[in-house]
Amino acid sequence: MITSRFASKLLNDTRRGIALFLVVGMVFITFLLFFFMSLSTSQLNFTAHQHLETELATQAGRAFADAFWVFAKDVFQNRKGCERIYPPTGTPSPLYPFRKNELEKIEIRITDFEKSAEILKAFKEIEEQLPELARTTATMHFKVRRFSDSFAHGDLCLNIAFTLKKIDYSFDYFREFKLIRCLAPVVSKFSLFLSNTSGGSSYNRILKSFQDEQGQEKPFVVFNSENSFVAGSTDTWKKSGWIYLGGAPVTLNLDGTHPCRKESDSFIFWPGLYSDSLSQALPYACSSYLSNSKLRVRFTPTGAMSDWQSSALMKDVLGGVSLPFVVKSSVIRLFGNRDKMTPTKVFGKVLTSYVIYSTMILDQNNDSVADSITSTQGIEQRAIFPLPRLGSPDLFKPPWFPRFVTSKGYDLFLDSAGVGGVPEKMSELFASYNGGNPDYVAYMSKLLRDFTPSSGIESYNALYDQIFEGSSETTGKSFPAPHVFPQDEYPHDGRDFEMPLDYARPESQFKGDLQKFDPGSFFADLNIYGRTYADADDFFANSDIKVETDHFIVNDPMVTKVSGALTFAKPFMANAPTIIVCDNDLTVAEVSKSTNDSKLTLVSLSGNIKITGKRLDGVCLIAPKGEIIWQAPVEISGSLCAGNIAPATFGVGGTLTWDKGLDISSIETAARSVAILIGPNITLVRKAVQP
Amino acid sequence: MTRQKAALSMVELLVAIAVLGGALLPIWHLHYQSSRRVVIGENQTLLKNLSFAFSTQVRRLDPNLLPINRDFQPITLNETGLYHLGASVLNTVTLPDWNPATLSLKFQIRKLKALPRENRLVILKITWTRKDVGPTDFLIPTLVSHD
Fold it and tell me: How far apart are CA A312 and CA B119, in angstroms?
C-alpha cells in the first residue's frame, strides 16, 4: 500500500516536473525568438540609417562635384586656367601627343587651377550650409580606354573626399571624355592649301595699265601673318602660315602697276620706269662702274601690266617682243601687299614671272643716283638709259645696236661728247653679247625665263630671299638675292615635306608627300567625334549649338559630324574649340570673332563650301574634294583648304589673313589646341569609402 | 476513498505566474523595440527616397528660373498636384508621400557667388520628429547649373 502511494506520488511529481520544464522551455524559446528578432530589427535599423547617411553624403558630394565640373568646364572651354594640362607659353602640354601612360599620370588638384581660390570659396559656401561637413578635397585624373594619334577616349574620374558627422567619405564621380586636337592636321599650318590648282597661267587674269587703279578682276590677297615682316628675321616663315598650290606647275605674275595704286602688290617694284628720280631707300640693285666709265647698271624688277604690250617704249625694252605672260597679273597675291608684306614658304611647283628691267645710269659722284644731263636741245633730264633685252647674239651689233637712249631721246654715245665718264664706244663697255667681261647678257633687261632653272629665280620662294635681301644694315642689296632656303626648295614641290611637332620638341607631326596627303582623312575617322547627327535638322534640334536671334553660338567644345548638307544662314560664334563636319555642301554666312580666341573648323567632306557673307574670323574652311566659293569680296581670318579654288573666285577679291591661333607647329598654340569633350553629367559613383 | 491532492499548491502557482511574467516582460519589450525600429527604418528609407527624388529632379531645372530665397520655404502642392519651388511653373518636382505628423519638408534656394556660371544651390531640409529624440533636421544640398 505504501509502495503504491509512493509510486503514485512519484508519477505525479514527474508529470508536474515535465510540465514545468515544458512551460519554462517554451518561455525561454519564445524569449530567444524575440531576442533574435530584436537583434535583426536593430541590424535593419542600423542598415537603413547607414543608407540614409550615405545618401546624404552622396548628395553633398555630388554638389561639390558639380561645382568642380563648372570650373573644369571653364578650363576646357578656354583651354587655360589650369597649368597642369594647359601650361604657360613655351611649355608643351602633357595632353598631346595622346599617350595612355602620360595621360594617366596627370592628376589635377584644386591648387592646379588658376581659380583655386574661387573653387575653395564655392566649396566653403556649400560646407556652410551643412553642419558637420568639412575638409573637402577634389582630385581629378584621366582613365584612358582607347587612344590613337587622333584622339584619346576614356573616363574622367573626379574624387571628392570630405568629412560629414565625423565620418570620412570618398566618392568617385565619372564622366566620359574625349581628347581631340581641335585643329586640322597639317592644313591648319597653311594659309592656303589647294590640292589641285587650275595650274599654268590660269590665275593671271588682272589686266590693267601702269596707271590703272583696278583691273576687271580684283586680287585676293593672302597675308601669312597678322603683322608685316621684320627686317632681318629670315626665319619669319616658321611662324607664318604656309602656302601649298598642288602638284601641277603654276605661274603667278607679279603686279607691275604703279606702287601707289590700290592693287599694286609688287614689293619688288621700282618706280624708276617712268620717274627719273629714285630714292636710295627703294630696294633696287646697282652694279659697280662698268670698265673705266662712270656708268653703272640698276636692276629693276618690274611686274605685269598692259603697257608691256601697248607701249612702244616698253616693247623696245623687251627687245620689241610682246609677251602676254607679263601683261596680266595674278589674282592671288601670296605675300600680302605693299603695306603689309608677309613672306612665307611656298610649297608646290609655284613659279613667278616678272621682268628684270635694267637701266644704265651716269653716276659721276658715286651715289647710285642718276646724274642730270642736258641734251643738245637744252632738255635737262636724268641720265637713265634702258638696256633692251636681246633674244639672241645675232642682235648684238655694236655700235648700231643696241641703242642706249633716255625716254626723252638722249642717246648715250651720240649725245655725250665731252661728258666725263662716258666712253666713246659701246665696245668699251660691253666686250661681247655673252662670254666677255663685262658681257651684255649679264646686264641687259631680262625675263625670268631667261635665267637657267638651276638658279631657282623663277620659284616663288626666291621672292622670299629678295624681300629680306638688304633689309639688314650689314648687308647690301643684290639681285638675285642669296637663297635663305635649301637649294632644292626653289621650288619645293611638297614631296619631301616635314612638319615639326612644335619647335620645342624634335619629333615630327607629319612627314610625307603633300601631293598624296588627303586633308579629309582625319575627319573620316568616326572615333574623333563627340556626337554624330542624322541631318541638319537633327543637329540644330539636338546639339549644344544655341540658335539665337542673330547668331549661332557654341559655348562648349564640340567635335561633331552631320550627314548631308549644312547651312549656317546666320553668323556663327564659337566660344570653344569647334569642329563641324558635314558630308555634302556647306554654306556659311559669317563667322564672328570668338570671345576667347577659340577657332572654328568647318569641313565639307565631299562637297563645296560656299561663303555668302563678308567676314569670317578665326575659321579654318576645309573642302578636300571640292571648292571654296565666294561671290563678293570677303575678308577671312584663318585658313583655307580645298581641292581647288577657281581663278574666277579669287578674282572676286578679298583677303585671307592666316590666324596664328591655327599654328599647330607652335608650342603656344599646340598646348591649347587639344579640346576636352566631356559626356553628360550623370551620377556614376564608384565607391563610397567609410574608413 | 482518498481525496486527490491539488496539481499545484498555491505557493507553486504564484511562483509559476511570477516566473512566467518575468519571462514574458522582456519578450514584450523586445517586441516593442522591434516594432519601433521597423517604423524608424521605414522613415529612414522614405527620407532617402525623398532626398534622391528631390535632388535628381531639381538638378535638371534651369538655374535662371529658380528664385533665390533667404529663408526655408515649405514645399507646397500646386493645382496640378506637383510640388512647386516658386516662380516659373516649370519649377516643379514629384515626391513620394510622407506623413506630415512626423516629417516636414522645406527648401531654400541660394546662389554660389564663386562659380563662373549661372547656378543655384537648392537645399532641402527634412525635419523628422521622433517621440524618443524629438525633431532632427536633415539637409540635402543640390547644385543646379547649366551642364
Answer: 78
